[in-house]
Amino acid sequence: MPTGGQPGALGGALVTALAGQAAVVLAFAVLGALAYAVVQRRRAADPSGPALPTESGARRFLRVALGSLWVLDGLLQAQPAMPSGFLPTMVDPAMAGQPSWLTQLVAPLVRAWSHHPVGADAVTVWVQVGLGVLVLAGGSGRFARTALWASLGWSVVVWVAGEGLGGLLVPGASWLTGVPGAAVFYAVASGLLLAPWSWWSGRRPAASLARWAVGVTMLLGAVLQALPWEGAWSASDGLSAIFRDASTTPQPALLRRPLSALALVSAAHPVAVGSVLLVVLAVVGAGLVSGRAAWLFVPSGLAVLLATWWFGQDFGVLGGTGTDPNSAVPLAAMLVAAWPGWAEATHTEPERAPVAPRRRVLGGAAWGAGVAAVLVVPAVLALGLFGPADAQAAVADDGGVRQLDGRAAPDFTLTDQNGARLTLSKLRGNLVLLTFLDPVCSDNCPLIANQLAAAVRAAGARAEHVQVVAVDANPVFHGVPDVQTFTREHGLSAMPSWHFVTGSLAQLTPVLRSYGITVSLQSVGMEAHSQVVYFVDAAGREVSSMDDSAQPDLTTGYVDLMTRAIETRAP
After folding, report:
1. Which of 7, 304, 403, 510 measures 20 to 30 Å from 378, CA to CA?
2. Is the same domain home to 338 and 305?
3. Cα atoms in the 13 Å half-sphere on the side-chain side of 175
4. Residue ranges in the chain whose pLDDT is less than 50
5. Containing structural domain, residue 359
6. What is the pTM of this model?
7. How many domains does the chain fold into?
8. Within a domain: 390
9. Contact between 84 and 395 (Cβ < 8 Å)
10. What pLDDT, on the 0 to 100 scale, is given for residue 524?
């Protein structure tokens, strides 16, 4: 029997979509380069203009770090597993146990993603890559500040919808797992870069704020570690579980062995390990907040963050489903920007320095590409995100249509809803859509039956060579009146290619077994069974199959998927 959906089932569709959209981004990059070159040439010809500000090294470092992180996050979002895997592996765990107001707030975005996984993922890819490019392009003008405001705003969206407020509102919150969420620190870094450039020179209040933010976060981690209801002191579900879960992520043995060892040690001595973590976070965090002995506490903070990134967060990106390197990296970037040894920078240059032609071209290209990635491409894609589910939604839900080895479909002879004998092999020359339904089912089975009927109608002329055969999968209700009632009540009587066949248990049991259909009886008349559609070609071979979860909001997607399969396989 076919298995569930494959994590990378939409990887090819995502690559194809991104490639086409990249052409638009490149076109805007060319236009931006041309426009920017003209503007800069005019500015360079005006010697009376104001002097340009000079960016300090600390600010430049933080800006480059933030831009690079956004680009990295966008590329991680482009992994093949993301369209179908982002909701079950990232969003669903983040929303588990959250208050209802938060899940309701996120629900429209989750629905849009589940209905259009490739389009939604592409929007996320381009927004994050575009933000990274715009932040990396730098500058001190209105456009640069707008890019930073956009970075701050998108960080909030990611924090709420993707990270569930960083896990602050659910049990088990821990410094080691990245609470309160990486996106918070993207927002903080964006805010620091929005401060006047003069804040990065002299007494460097922006750098002090960056150091203070890291220190407060460490103190929050110490508080979370101390709270008994967070479960950090448990031998089985506390720190040991964090290390144990990290060690199960696919990674080289060199990285996995220390995690396994820490899991064993923290399971045997949870109080000792937890106490060490609490003291380290409290002391280093307090030192960073105080601002004294920065030469000691800034390097110490970086060491704590490096250890956290490895042992607690497992580098954040391993396993193929990570969407960011987790909170330790942006925190470390802010702490480096707060390093007391950065050289001072003058605020302005005495003269307007000429801009090299190559720099003009690259700067314009970056702004053109960034604007296209953040605004143009997502705006076009967003037009379709809130419509009916597409075929890719069905692929993400249950894996889509899978190719089979082409074995001969097991033959059978049963009785249809009209009392006529039907033999599967007698339908050769047609494409047969073979499924298994319960005639007294009132939810999934009628939905699947009507999806099949809608797909046949949508196939147009190709439907002349399509037959739909549903086999009775209920061991209690398997008489002709049962399948006849189902056919009539669900509007299938006028469909000449519809055959709901049944027979005695002695006849049905080997048919179900030969197609791998499992059945389990419930306390009422309905029963649970495998929900699969086989595509049997004109030569009587099983060429493909698909599972159908029968979710009402994905009906359009499943019909579209079935229709495409009919159009490509019908004789």
Report:
1. 7
2. yes
3. 28
4. 1-5, 345-353, 525
5. 11-382
6. 0.87
7. 2
8. no
9. yes
10. 54
